[in-house]
Structures are given as C-alpha cells and as structure tokens.
Amino acid sequence: MERLSKQQQEEIRLKIIKTAVDLFSEYGFEATTMKQIAREAGIGDATIYKYFPNKDKLIYGYYGLMA
Questions:
Q1: Is there a domain that residue 54 lies in?
Q2: pLDDT in the model for residue 37
Q3: Measuring CA to CA, which residue among 60, 67, 63, 55 is closest to residue 20?
Q4: Does residue 12 form part of some domain?
Q5: pLDDT, mean of residues 18-39
C-alpha cells in the first residue's frame, strides 16, 4: 500500500470532519457512530481512528477549522 501525501491526508481529514458534521446534524452526536462516519466518508472502519481516536477529538478538529 502506498503512503498518502500530506495533501491527501489533509483531504481525507477534512472529508471525515465534513461527513461527521452532516451526520451529527441529521442523527445527533450520540446516535452517530465512528463506523457510520467512516462508511459515509468512503474510508475503512479502522482508518478513521488514524485521524481521530474518538468523536470528541473529531469535534475538536472541526472547531480547529472554524477558529
């Protein structure tokens, strides 16, 4: 498996955040799972944890973008 460039990693990170925000808006924070976010973002279930260890960190990532 080839390594992703920094740009590709950042694109995936942003896609995860955008997907999570969309799902949180639709289903609520508690009802949305990391697996659901990963699948909707088109990445593997385990891959999402390389970017965000949990939903709380994902929210911090979103707030970091908005700051």
A1: yes
A2: 98
A3: 55
A4: no
A5: 97
